[in-house]
Amino acid sequence: MTKSHLPADHPAVKQQKIGVLLANLGTPDATDYWSMRRYLSEFLSDKRVIDYSRLFWQPLLQLVILSKRPFTSGAAYRTIWNNDANESPLMTITKQQTAAIATQMQADFGDQVMVDYCMRYGNPSTQSRVDAMIAAGCTKILFFPLYPQYAGATSATANDAFFKALMDLKNRLQPVARVVPPYFDQPAYIDALAQSIERKYATLEERPDILVCSYHGLPQRYLTEGDPYHCQCQKTTRLLKERLGWADTEIMTTFQSQFGSEEWLQPYTVEEVARQAAADNKRLAICAPAFSADCIETLEEINEEIRESFEHAGGQNFTYVPCLNDDPAHIAALCGVIQQNLMGWLD
């Protein structure tokens, strides 16, 4: 219906657009106890993250874990906090990524595409950004979880929040929706990873004995239940090795951030770096290919706890290769994935 045919009392009709909504894990609003508690409660109450019975888990979480963990997590966040912007590095970097992708989308498609970001936990929420896109005239939304490898605890729960936002629109028209699949084996993503490693190695006086690709961990049973994350991580490392032209002995896959007492995907990064040092691999580099942006798990866990484990075991040179963040090759790779998934919606 054209505007000339609309009745006088008809709500204003926006110019139709396509939304590209980037989604990352999330971040606390601040590092104080209550901000950390709100964030951790939302995160650790997610059934895809912790799938124990709520009757068992919620009393333990609310009465025991969240009485102490906000203090320790807040202290960890304070060591990496972007004090100038009063936000976490993940928030800063996600904003930078969004701006860079928006610039490229504007160059390619003009005003037809709107780019924004949301967080699965914390702010801005997925619901708020979906609402904003619809209010801006987006009749189609491409939802892009910024996780190269799929896992139920990352990609799937981000998708859950997106689908729930669509369910909660009530009487408003739902936009047509697409979800970007994992991009762990996309050549441009692998090439961006390889370039970042080559640049870092070029700055070092001595070549590391081994590169550890450290991925966020999951309980081992998730693999046996059908989650493809472990296999996709292994393939990312293999493709990276092939792109770099390295031998098997120069690169390996490990998993970090274990939680609780059950067995998780192995080898554990914190233990493996110590074994490497003990095996006389005294120069070690480490990267985190599962993270699209540096965050608490890379800036604090890798650079402090995991570094400590390596050095305590006799390691001498520990090199962290930063996440791809807003590196131009990474932005180009992400834009390529977006353009693939916009096919049929845009020329």
User: If you compute it from the alpha carbons, what radius of gyration comes out, rounded to the nearest whole angstrom?
Assistant: 22 Å
State the oligomer.
single chain
Number of strands: 8
Total domains: 2
Which fold name corresponds to the CATH topology of the largest domain?
Rossmann fold
Q: How far apart, in Å, are the first and last alpha carbons?
A: 23 Å
Q: Name the CATH architecture of the largest domain.
A: 3-Layer(aba) Sandwich
The secondary-structure element order is: EHHHEHEHEHEHHEHEHEH
Largest sheet: 4 strands, parallel
| Biggest sheet, spatial arrangement of strands | 2-1-3-4
Helix coverage percent: 40-55%
**Approximate strand percentage:** 15-25%
CATH class of the largest domain: Alpha Beta
Global shape: globular
Low-pLDDT parts are none
**Structural class by sheet pairing and helices:** alpha/beta
Mean pLDDT equals 95
Helix tally equals: 11
Structural commentary:
- This protein is of the alpha/beta class.
- The protein has two domains: 17-183 and 329-341, Rossmann fold (3-Layer(aba) Sandwich); 187-320, 3-Layer(aba) Sandwich (Rossmann fold).
- It has eleven helices and eight strands.
- The protein has helices at residues 33-44, 54-78, 89-109, 126-135, 152-167, 187-202, 220-224, 229-244, 269-278, 296-312, 328-341, and strands spanning 17-27, 113-122, 138-145, 176-179, 210-216, 251-256, 283-287, 317-320.
- The strands form two sheets. It has a four-stranded parallel beta sheet, with helices on both faces. A four-stranded parallel beta sheet has the order 6-5-7-8, sandwiched between helices.
- Helix 5 (152-167) links the parallel strand 3 (138-145) and strand 4.
- The protein is globular.
- It starts with 16 loop residues before the first strand and ends in a 6-residue tail after the last helix.
